[in-house]
Design brief:
The chain is an all-alpha fold. Helix content is about 75%, strand content about 0%. The protein is globular and about 70 Å long. It starts with a helix and ends with a helix.
């Protein structure tokens, strides 16, 4: 009963928060996106059995689902470790009440299990199971076991990911380790060294078809839950948490070498420190690293070999991953100290130049990290070079131009996963043209002339933007000066 009261308090707190109604339009966009994917996955579940049968694979449709369960576990844990924010609770109001310590710990651990988003995996699995049951592939008991095992996989992923994140944190080294492990598993499977797919079929086939399988999976979930409880028993008290956090502190990144570039370099160094010190911006860097792998969905696929509009869309997305994610918040992340920043002896043009050059630097870094895609052929090299010029000369200027028109203060202390604080409908409207306009333009040129003409024009447009960057910066400066006091007033009101 107390658990339900705690859950009710958190819901009331979220609904009564001022940001809940200020971000209602962004929440509507998110709700529509969730509804769209829900319908798509539901339809996929209904037709998945027919699709797998038509593919003429050497496995039964049910075995293919069981073979994917291990990858669901690995990818699910990795994604939650890198993106999911940890549950918190305001302890002081509850510590003076007759509420047991175990109740608060259980609430923190079990709260994610009541989030419907965590059960999105069941959307395609349930209709697939129903279709397999009506087709006679499985019995009713096996179908029920298939769904129950999927639910327990979700629980297992939640508990293990939370434990890893609380134990090792979301440090950059931890994220890189997780990415490397996923890459190793994928490489071993692709090159046939180890068949994790067959191993998954064997393990989860035993769990589904054996009457004791559900009990074994339940023991795994309870073991993960018990390890979390053990961690809380060791680090629950405030002084232990403080000791742990103090011992795990690392030396702040040193960007003093940027000072050799004058005040602009000093501001870039301060922005880089801000990015690496706060959860929200570090989460964006993590997501940007994941977006670098977006090209793997298109470049190796022969189905998209002649769809150069879509390939250029992927190239812009990959090469501009960091620029697109961080460019939306380029002024907003200074919202908490914007008044202080405006009182410092910093020229407006210097402030604009620092952010402008920093975004260009992010495009170059993304381009360098995406060079392994060059192994897919000369056409990919041309697409990425053009996308680099387009991102540096056009998209960077676009982000700097629209940034003063988004007057939403960011809370940098929280992660970006499932966090839409500071997000408005303008963020969605501004990102859409920089992705879909070049896609449509290259597709049009490809159908009328040749794709190289469209890509060349966009690359030349970006090169012109770089050559005229001084004029572009002066124009952005005039827009910023007109909006500066509106931003100050808006950030001040949101802080009160």
């Amino acid at each position: 009963m107390i658990f339900l009261y705690l859950l009710k308090h958190q819901i009331i707190k979220a609904v009564r928060a001022p940001g809940f109604y200020k971000n209602v339009i962004a929440n509507i966009f998110v709700g529509l996106a969730v509804l769209y994917f829900f319908v798509m996955f539901l339809l996929l579940g209904f037709f998945l059995r027919d699709i797998l049968l038509e593919a003429d694979l050497p496995y039964e449709p049910t075995d293919i689902l069981l073979g994917s369960y291990l990858y669901v576990v690995v990818v699910g844990i990795a994604t939650r470790f890198m993106m999911q924010s940890l549950n918190t609770i305001n302890l002081p109001p509850y510590q003076i009440l007759p509420i047991k310590r175990n109740t608060l710990v259980n609430y923190l651990l079990l709260k994610p299990l009541f989030n419907p988003v965590n059960y999105f995996l069941l959307v395609p699995i349930v209709p697939f199971t129903i279709r397999s049951l009506t087709a006679g592939d499985i019995t009713a008991l096996q179908g029920l076991s298939l769904i129950i095992i999927a639910i327990m996989i979700v629980w297992f992923n939640i508990f293990v990911a939370v434990l890893l994140k609380r134990r090792y944190g979301s440090s950059l080294w931890g994220i890189l380790t997780v990415i490397c492990l996923i890459a190793i598993v994928g490489a071993l499977e692709i090159y046939g060294v180890v068949s994790f797919f067959d191993f998954s079929i064997t393990v989860f086939g035993f769990l589904v078809y054996n009457p004791l399988g559900i009990l074994v999976m339940a023991l795994c979930v309870l073991c993960a839950y018990g390890l979390n409880r053990r961690f809380f028993a060791k680090y629950y008290y405030a002084e232990r948490f403080d000791r742990k956090s103090n011992s795990s502190k690392t030396k702040a990144a040193d960007f003093s070498f940027m000072e050799r570039f004058g005040q602009i370099g000093e501001l870039i160094g301060l922005n880089l420190k801000l990015i690496l010190r706060h959860k929200r911006t570090k989460s964006l860097l993590t997501v940007g690293c994941l977006f670098l792998a977006y090209g793997l969905l298109f470049y190796p696929n022969k189905h998209y070999a002649d769809s150069y509009g879509l390939l250029f869309f992927a190239a812009v997305f990959v090469v501009g991953s960091f620029t697109m994610l961080l460019g939306q918040w380029v002024i907003l992340w200074n919202g908490s100290h914007f008044d202080y920043l405006m009182t410092k002896p910093i020229d407006t043009r210097t402030y604009i130049c620092a952010n402008y050059y920093m975004l260009i630097g992010f495009s170059i870094i993304s381009f360098v990290l995406s060079t392994p895609y060059f192994l897919f052929g000369t056409n990919i090299i041309i697409l990425h070079l053009s996308a680099l010029l387009y991102n540096m000369g056009v998209n960077t200027a676009f982000f700097m131009l629209v940034a003063p028109f988004i007057a939403k203060r960011l809370d940098l202390s929280k992660g970006s996963a499932m966090n839409y604080q500071g997000t408005t409908y303008k963020n969605f409207l501004f990102v859409m043209p920089i992705l879909f306009v070049p896609w449509g333009f290259v597709a049009l040129c490809s159908s009328l002339f040749t794709w190289k003409i469209g890509v060349g024009i966009l690359g030349a447009l970006g090169l012109i933007g770089l050559l005229l960057h001084r004029q572009v910066i002066r124009f952005i400066e005039r827009v910023f000066v007109q909006r500066k006091y509106i931003l100050c007033d808006s950030f001040r009101q949101q802080a009160s």
